[in-house]
Amino acid sequence: MVLIVVSDEDHTVDIEKGLQMGTSCNIFVELEGNKHIGVYCHFDGYLDHMLPELHAIKYDTLYGLVLEAGTHGGIRILNERNTKPDPTMRTEFLDDNCTEYVFDPDDLSYAKFAYIKKLNGEVLYRNHREDGWHNASWSIQCK
């Protein structure tokens, strides 16, 4: 069994690795002056998928994906590591006929999670049921 261990200064959560389809999120990149730009992501926004993705992807790469995804209405699934559900699948955009960005990381009206890739490479996350942001460190443990 593979577990993703998510820990921050307050708590540790073990999450069994599995496909969490249908869990939406907002993905942001931090800009200068404590501003943000982000997009909606429709599938697999749960911690066990997004934290390894966001830690592995370089800031500039994610920034470019966010800018491109916004012109398609958002992201269907972020899969830059090519791990699931099919290892040949890459990041897919929604292909809506609209341009849509989100700018307020604290507004979780339409998503269960929000993630921020900071300028320094750190990743913050927030659950829609909790107040406050968590600094995410993660590791993969095989049991």
The overall pLDDT average reads: 81
The largest sheet, given as strand count, sense and whether it forms a barrel, is: 5 strands, mixed
Task: Indicate the radius of gyration in whole angstroms.
Answer: 14 Å
How much of the polypeptide forms β-strand, as a percent range? 25-35%
**Structure annotation, total helices:** 2
Shape: globular
Structural class: alpha+beta
Ends: how far apart? 5 Å
- The side-by-side strand order for the widest beta sheet comes to 4-3-7-8-9
Number of strands: 10
Q: How are helices and strands ordered from N to C?
A: EEEEHHEEEEEE
Q: What low-confidence regions span 5 or more consecutive residues with pLDDT below 50?
A: 1-20, 139-143
Question: Could you estimate the helical fraction of the residues in percent?
Answer: 10-25%
Please give the domain count: 1
Explain this structure to me?
The protein is α+β, with helices and mostly antiparallel strands and 143 residues long. It has one domain. 15% of the residues lie in helices and 34% in strands. The chain contains two helices and ten strands, in the order E-E-E-E-H-H-E-E-E-E-E-E. It has helices at 47-56, 59-70; strands at residues 2-7, 12-16, 25-31, 35-41, 75-77, 92-93, 113-117, 123-127, 134-135, 137-142. The strands form three sheets. Strands 4-3-7-8-9 form a five-stranded mixed β-sheet, covered by helices on one side. Strands 2-1-10 form a three-stranded antiparallel β-sheet, covered by helices on one side. A two-stranded antiparallel ribbon has the order 5-6. The radius of gyration is 14 Å and the shape is globular.
